[in-house]
Write a structure and sequence with these properties.
Length: 136
């Protein structure tokens, strides 16, 4: 399986090597940022310490789906503002849910956005849903 591992800077969005301690563009401390891995059926985030996977693709054969997972982050922003920091918060919320429920990860992650703009300010909700998975 072809894969590319990297860390994504939450400050500027630059990809650095999976073992990077600091962002190669802005110098942001990446020590505690998770390694992200692009694989054949999507992108997954693998937390280096816990080994949990968050997969946008199908449930891998070594796992079984054990139930739905849902996480939500709401915030206010200016119209057309970059949501990347909020996306990272959403993924952290999913990681918390995985840990609390003693899952090995989540597959088939789908992210939806709901927003309402009033006077140039958006009320935004990002919602992630997927299948909780456990190793067979």
């Amino acid at each position: 399986m072809d894969k590319i591992e990297y860390k994504l800077c939450p400050k500027c969005g630059t990809q650095s090597g999976s073992d990077a301690m600091f962002c190669i563009k802005c110098g942001y401390n990446l020590k505690n940022e998770p390694v992200k891995v692009h694989v054949e059926n999507g992108l997954f985030y693998k937390h280096e310490i816990t080994g949990k996977v968050l997969l946008f693709g199908n449930v891998p054969t070594q796992y079984i789906a054990v139930g739905p997972v849902l996480g939500r982050v709401s915030f206010n922003s200016r119209v057309n503002e970059d949501y990347s920091q909020h996306m990272e918060k959403l993924m952290n919320k999913i990681r918390e849910i995985v840990d609390v429920n003693e899952l090995d990860g989540v597959a088939n992650i789908s992210i939806t956005t709901s927003s309402l703009a009033i006077d140039g300010i958006e009320k935004v909700s990002l919602i992630a849903s997927g299948d909780g998975i456990k190793l067979r």
